[in-house]
Amino acid sequence: MDKCLSESALIAIFTGEGSPSQRRHLDSCLTCARRYRQLGSEMRTIVSVLKQPAPREQRIRPDSTAPVWRWSLAAAAVLAAFLCGRLTIVPHGGGAALQMASQSQIEASYLDDADSIQPAAYAANMTDLLSPIDPGNDLTPGDGN
Amino acid sequence: MDYERVHRAYGPRVTGLCRLLLRDPEEAEDIAQEVFLRAFEQLRTNQAPTVWEAWLVRVAVNACRDRQRSGWWKRRSRLVEVEEMEPQLLSLSSEEEASEREQRTRIWAQLQKLRPKQREIFVLRCVEGWSTTETAQALGLSPGSVKTHLFRAIRHLRQALEQL
Lengths: 145, 164
Hints:
The complex is a heterodimer. By secondary structure, chain A is mainly α. Chain A has 6 helices and 1 strand. By secondary structure, chain B is mainly alpha-helical. In chain B, helix 7 packs across helix 9 (143-162) and helix 8 (132-139) crosses helix 9 (143-162). The longest helix of chain B is centred in the first third of the chain and has 20 residues, at 3-22. Chain B is globular, with a radius of gyration of 18 Å. Classes of the chains: A mainly alpha, B mainly alpha. Chain A binds chain B through residues 7-8, 11-12, 15-17, 39, 42-43, 45-47, 49-63, 65-66, and chain B through 16, 19-20, 23-25, 75-86, 101, 103-105, 107-109, 111-112, 123, 125-127, 131-132, 147, 150-151, 154-155, 157-158, 160-161. Strand 1 (58-62) of chain A pairs antiparallel with strand 1 (77-81) of chain B.
C-alpha cells in the first residue's frame, strides 16, 4: 500500500479495526505515523476530559426558542390559509379590478335604461307622480274651510 | 453477588455513563438510581444477570434514551453554553489554565452536539472501552453501523481541538 491512509483508516487502526496492510503502511510511512500519533494524542485528551466532571459553563437553561418557533409556524399557517382563501374567492386581477369592472357594468346598465325611456312616456310618468293621490284631502293653502 | 457489592462495584461507572449521555448531573443521578432499583428487583426475584456490567450498561443506555425521548425532557431544556466563569478563578488562573478550561468547554460542547447514537457509541467504545461487538450487541446495531457512527463521532469531536 503506497497511498497514505485516510482519516477513517487511521481511526480504524486506533480503535483496533485496521487491516494488516493498513498497519504495514503505518509502520513504513512517516507522514501517516505522525498523523496517527496526533490522533492518539487528541483522543487521549478528549477521553480524559470526558472522564472529568463537566465544566461549570455548561448549564441547562429553559428552552425559550421552542414556543417562538411554534407561534411563528402557527402564524404562518394562518396567514397562508387566509391568502389561499382570498385567492380562491377573488378572480385573477385582484379586488380593485373586480370593483372597477362592477362599477362600469352598473353605469352601463343605467345608460341603457336612460336610452330606452321615451319623452312622452317620461312626461306621463312625471304627471302621475305630481298629481295628488286623493283630491278630497288636498291641503293646499287657501283652500280650507 | 449481593446488591451492596453490585452497587459499590458499578455505581460510579453507571452514574458516569448517564452523566455523559444526559449531560445533566442531577438527571444522571436520578437515572442511575432507577438502574440500581431494577438491579435490586432482579436480585430479589432471583433473575440476576450473568454479566452485571453488560446488563447495567444496557439498562442505563435504554433508561437515558427513554428520558431523552420523553416530551417533558424535550420541553424542559436545551443545553446552552453560558459564560459564567467565576471572576476570582479567572483572575488567578494562568494562561495555560485558561486554555485548558476552554479546551474542556469545547470538548463538552462538541459531545453535546453529537447525535444520541453517536454519543452512546463513542462513550461505550472510547470511554468505557467496550469492543465493537459488545457495543453493537448492547445497542442492537450491526458492527458496521457501530464503526460508521464511531468514525463520525471521533471526527466531530476532533474538530473541538482543531478550533483551538
